[in-house]
Amino acid sequence: MGALEKLYYSPAGKAIAGKAGLKEPPRLRRGREWPQGPIVLASIGGGELAAETMRLLGRSTEAPVVDEGADAPGYGSRIGALVVDATEATSIAQLEELRALLRPAVRSIERSGRIVVLARPAAGDWESRTVSRALDGINRTVGKELRGGATATLLYVDPSARAGDLVSTLGFVLQGRAAFVDGQAWTVAGADQPAESLQARPLDGRVVVVTGAARGIGAEIARTLARDGASIVAVDIPPAGESLAAIANEVGGTALQLDITADDAGRRLAEHVAQRGESIYGIVHNAGITRDKMLVNTDAARWASVLDVNLAAQMRINEVLLSADIPGGIADGGRIVGVASTSGLAGNKGQTNYAASKAGVAGLVTAMAPDLAARDITVNAVAPGFIQTEMTQKIPFVQREVFLRSNSLSQGGLPVDVAETIGYLLDPRSQGLTGQVIRVCGQNLVGA
Amino acid sequence: MTHNAVVIGGNRTPFAKAGGPYAEASNHDLLTAALDGLIARFGLAGERIGEVAGGAVLKHSKDFNLTREAVLSSALAPSTPACDLQQACGTGLETTIYIANKIRLGQIDSGISAGVDSTSDAPIVVSDSLRRTLLKANAARSAADRVKALAKIRPSHLKPQAPSVAEPRTGLSMGEHQALTTERWGITREAQDEIAAASHHKLAAAWADGFFDDLVTPYLGVPRDAILRPDTSVEKLASLRPAFGGPRGSMTAGNSTALSDGAATALLASEEWAAEHHLPVLAKVVDAEVAAVDHPGGDDLLLGPVAAAGRMLARQGLSVADFDLVEIHEAFASTVLATLKAWDDEDYCRGLGLDGKLGTIDPSRLNVTGSSLAVGHPFAATGARIVPTLAKLLHAKGPGSKGLISMCAAGGQGVVAILEAV
Questions:
Q1: For residue B125, what pLDDT is reported?
Q2: Which of A188, A218, A248 is the last residue of a domain?
C-alpha cells in the first residue's frame, strides 16, 4: 500500500475525502437476507403475477403510497422494496401510474432496498412495444438515482410464465444475493416450475464443475455453490494445485488439476465425474486470463492465448460434455454458465483480445440456448464489472479508486456477488431463463 | 476373511533439493500438504480413513507422533488414527505394506501410506555429555547441587551434532559403501551416467505429457520436481568430478541422488470400499518381502533387495521377466546396475540361499517415468512415490499387468513388493 493510499484510508484522510464529496460507499446487504422494511406491492392494469409470486415466497406485502399531487409524498418510514406488477401495462398513459408509485418509494427506500418492475417483453401493437422499451429507460434511470446501495431491476416476464417460474428470480432480486446487480433487465419465460417457495439448498446433491476455482472469483463461486448444496468439482491448471486442493477440501468437493485448453480436457472432466458414478448438473466456465496491451502492441500470441482460454476452450468442453453418449457429461435439465465481462460488452482500452473473448462468451450462450432448450439445459452468462480481487488490488490506487466508484453503487463488487448471481442461474427453479447475460456491475457507467 | 488391497491413487509434493524452496517447511508441513492434496483429489474431506501410516527418517523427537499430527492438521476427519513407522529409505514402501496387510486381513477397509523427509528440517542434537549434565542438574535436590551440576557445562558441550548418514557399524557413508559395490561389480562410469541421463529424460517427458497431473500437487509455489534437469546429457554428466570412491571413482553428484525434501502419499482400500466410494482402482498389492544382508561382514550394503525379491518371486512362482514394469529405486545409478547384475548372477543368488538367478529384464520396462536420480529422494517418501506411479502405469497397460518394486535401505536392508493392475 502506497503512502497516498494509506493516507486516503486513514481516519483523517476519510474525513477530508468526505468533505470533498467522496463519501464512504454504502455497505450492501448480501446473502439470503430479505429487506428489513416492508415490501410494498403495486399493480398497474390489474396484473396478479407479482402478488402470487410474493405469496409463494411467503413474504407479506403492504399497499403502496401513490403520488396524487401532494407535496413531497412519502411513506413516513423506510420501506424495504417496491414491487410493481406492470405486466398489464400497455399504454404510455399507464407510465404515469408508475411515476406516481416510484416517486414516494424512491424517497423512502431503505439502504440496499429494491425497486423491481415486472413487465412484458416487447410484443403486440406499436404502443405496447414502446411501453416495454420505455420501462427500460425508467429502470436504468431509477438505478442511477437511488442511493444507499438500493437497486432497480426490470424483469420481462413472458406470458407463458406463472408464479412458480418467478420464485427463484424474485427471491434472488429481493434478497441480498443481488447486491451488485443494478439497473439490469432480463427475461423470464414459463417452464412449468412447481408453485413452491425458495429452496434453502437448491443445489443439494448436484455436481457442479467450476473452472478457475483455485482463487479469486472462482474460489468464491465454489464456496457459494457448496453453501447451496452443490458437490463441487474444482478445476484449475496444475500449477495452481495447492490452492485448488485447499478450496476443494474447504467445500468438501474434489480437485481436478486440468488445463482446460488441453485437447482432451472435456473427456478428462467427464471421466473424473463418471468415475464417481455421477453426471454433471452444471458447469461454470469461470477460468480466464488477461494479456492486456493496446491493439497496436497486440501480437498473435497474446491474441491466441486469451481467445483459447477464455472462449474456445469452453466451447470445446461444452461440445464434449453435451455429446449424448459420454458418461459424466451434462445431464438433461442441466446448466451451463459462462463468465463474460463488462469489458466485452462495452469495450475496454487495451483489452481487444479480452473483449473479443468475453463478448464471444455472451454470443456463445445466446447461440447455444435455443439448441439446448429441448434438453431443458439452460445456457446463460454473468458479466462482472469491477470486482475486487487480489488481481484488481494490483491496479494503481488512484486509477482503482476511480474504477471502483464509476457505478451507481459507488463501489467495487465482491467475488460473492458474481457467485450469487451464478447460483441463481444454476437454481433448478431458474428453468425459465436461458440465453441471457446478467451484468453484475453495480450499473457500471460504461457499457450497454 | 481376506480382501484385495488395491491402490486407488496417490499424491505427493514436488520434490526439491535440500535447503531449497522447502527450506522453511517442516516434515509436518510437507506431510500435511501431501495429505491435503490426496484428500482433495479423491474428495475425502471430513472422511474417516481406516488408518494412516507414515514416517520420516530424519525426525525431531517432538515429532514422535508426526503422522497423527499431520492428520489432525489435514482435512481428514480428526477421528482418523495414524501411526509412525520407519525403515530408512524403505519407509514409504513399508508403510504401504503395513496398510495393505491390514486391509487384506479386514482390519481396516481404507488406509493411506505415506513418507516424508526434509533434510532441511533435520534434527540438530546436542552432545551426550551435555544431556547427562542437564539430567543431573534436573535431579539435584538442592539449589547448591543444581548450580554445581550446571557449572560443569563446557563450551564444547554446546556444539551441535548434525545427523550423519554414515552406517553406524562400518563408519562408511552410504556413498562410500556403494563405491565398494560399484568396484566389486565392475560398473562403469558410462553406464551410470546413462542411467542418470535417462532418468532425467524420462521424468521430463512424463511431466510434459501431464502424467503427474493427478499424482502431484504443487507446494509453496513449486509446480514440479525441482531437481529435474530435462536438458542434462551423458556428455554433461561425464564432466562431473567423482564424489565417492576416491579420485578415480565413478560415482558423481550427477549419478547419485541429491539430498531432498518432499512428502508422498498413497491411498489404499479394499475393493469394496473403493466401489462404495466410486473411486478408481488401479492395482492390487500382491505380495511383499523384506530382507537384509550382513554389510558389517562385507556384504554389499545396498543389495539387500536381491534376496528379498528372490524369496518373494519364488513364493509367487514368478521370474523378473514376468513383469511388465520394474521400479528399482535409484539410490545411486550404480545401485540399479549392481541390482540388475546381481539378479542375473547364478552364484550370487545361490549364495543368498536362492534356488538360482532371477534373470534379466528388458531395460525399456525399467523406471519408465524416471526415478530418484531425477525426482529426488526424500528418504521415507520414495516408496510412497513409487507405489501410485507404478499403479497408474500398470493400470494403463491393462488388467493383469504386473509390476515389481525394489528398494534398498540403510542397515543393509531391502524392501520389495509386487503390484498387479486390476
A1: 66
A2: A188
